[in-house]
Amino acid sequence: MQYVLPSDFVACCSADLRRIQSKLRGLVQRASSIMLPCLLDLMATELRAWRSKWKDHFEGKDRPQLNDDPSFNPGWYHLTVLINLWEHSVRLNVASSILRQHTDGLSGVMPGFWSPPGDVPMDLDLMTIQQAIHWN
Fold first, then answer.
1. Of 10, 46, 73, 117, which is least surrounded by CB within 10 A?
2. 101, 87, 108: which is closest to 37 by C-alpha?
3. Least confident piece of the model among 50-54, 84-88, 112-116
4. What is the C-alpha separation between 29 and 68, in angstroms, rounded?
5. Spatial separation of the C-alpha atoms in residues 61 and 11, rounded to whole Å
6. What pLDDT, on the 0 to 100 scale, is given for residue 36?
7. What gap in Å lies between CA 12 and CA 14, rounded to an integer?
8. What pLDDT is stored for residue 33 in this prediction?
9. How many CB atoms lie within 10 A of CB 90?
10. pLDDT digits (tens, 9 = 90+) for 102-111
């Protein structure tokens, strides 16, 4: 891959991560509530493999040393932040999907689990918020 542009690496890296996210989201939708915690371990494993796969492409000879000033090579630090942001985005997306799937499973077992009490208004206007603030 010596003649590939850096933007091609970024596009391929992003596509690979979205493939992993899609696979994990599909598994979450089909998994039983007992298996949901195992998917967190699978997610961690998949993301570690993804990071190690793409690490060599982004940490080449232009990688700054530990004592280098970030202003000397802003592109590398930007790329590092971008990759970390993508990874945390996938972690948040899959974890929230697992939480949503688990709470949906609980609402089937315990019918009143997510239903709000009858005296709580469902529309939050300014008056309701002010009353709640002054009441507490």
1. 117
2. 101
3. 112-116
4. 45
5. 21
6. 86
7. 5
8. 82
9. 21
10. 887 766 655 5
Residue listed under structure tokens 């309701």: 128
Contacts of 14 (CB under 8 A, 6+ apart): 86
Least Cα distance to 26 among 94, 116, 99, 115 occurs for 94
- Assigned token pair, 126: 């300014």
CA separation for the pair 31, 34 (Å, rounded): 8
What gap in Å lies between CA 119 and CA 116, rounded to an integer?
Answer: 8
Single pTM value for the model? 0.65
CB-CB neighbours of 28 under 10 Å = 22
Are the C-beta atoms of residues 28 and 36 closer than 8 Å to each other?
Answer: yes
Cα(89)–Cα(83) distance, integer angstroms: 10
Closest CA to 51 of 91, 108, 23, 7: 91
Q: Which of 107, 85, 46, 90 is nearest to 38 (CA)?
A: 46
Short-list 101, 99, 94, 98, CA closest to 22: 94
